Amino acid sequence: MLTSESVSMLLIPYLLCFATGCATVRPQALGLTAEDLWISRHSHRQSLTKTVQPSEQAIVQYHRELDQNVSAYLQEHAVDQLIHAHLNDHRVVSGMTREQVILLCGTPDATHHMNGQEVWIYKLFASATYQLYFNENTLTYIKWSDLEPL
Predict the structure, then answer these.
(1) Could you tell me if residue 150 is inside a domain?
(2) What's the order of all strands across the beta sheet hosting 110-114?
(3) Would 69 be classed as within a structural domain?
(4) Does the pTM of the predicted model rise above 0.85?
């Protein structure tokens, strides 16, 4: 079960980045967790130093609903064993389909095409984004940036 302390630990890297004004673009080697995205999208900043996070009850409800949706999806679809494990962990990784990404993250905030790939943008806060690159129906690359997307 997530506690308010564990939720706070998830947001520390984001808050440090805003406090120091860093500008980074980095690939997501281990994938994007649906929880990271959800918490970021459902938190709001009251000031430069204080962020209001979703309540513990809201986070528990989110996990319950996501677990049910993933379970139903896996009962209806045959998926690779590795993708199956990542879906159960609520982790978005290269090799997933668009449908699987939407299952975990919801619909993107924006989309565009670049170099023959479709790019899905998930906005977090301020100018931070996750950018997911698809080649046809397959996720090929995940990038986190605190810069505006192209």
Answers:
(1) no
(2) 25-27, 138-145, 129-135, 117-123, 110-114
(3) yes
(4) no
